[in-house]
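Human: Here is a favour to ask of a fellow structure person. Comparing notes only helps if you start from a blank page. I am asking you to supply a protein in sequence and structure-token form. Write it directly below this note and I will take it from there.

Assistant:
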Amino acid sequence: MKIQESAENYLETILMLGQKKGNVRSIDIANELEFKKPSVSVAMKNLRENGYIKVDDNGFITLTESGRQIAETMYERHLLLSKWLINLGVDEKIAVEDACKMEHVISPESFEAIKKHAEQKSS
């Protein structure tokens, strides 16, 4: 099922914060993305209702299996596309910004081709 880019960004952010901090709360997401807490709360409600996250009694957010799959896909794309653009000579800040946009629209087929090409170039 295709989900919105904003939901993909939230899931990716939860994954990254979880790797850095261990426990993730809505306020952590709001601070990381520089969004207002009410906006994040609405997004978390939608992600929970759609089965992408779980929120425990203490407000800690964890990814469900489907949420984790989406987050890991976006994160892999982000890392590879950023590195690829930097290796092509794009300024790091611009490469990261562009990768963040590209990761949501690139087809799996095109991403796999870029991934294969990047792996061949690095070996």
About this structure: The chain has a mean pLDDT of 93. Strands lie at 53-55, 61-63.
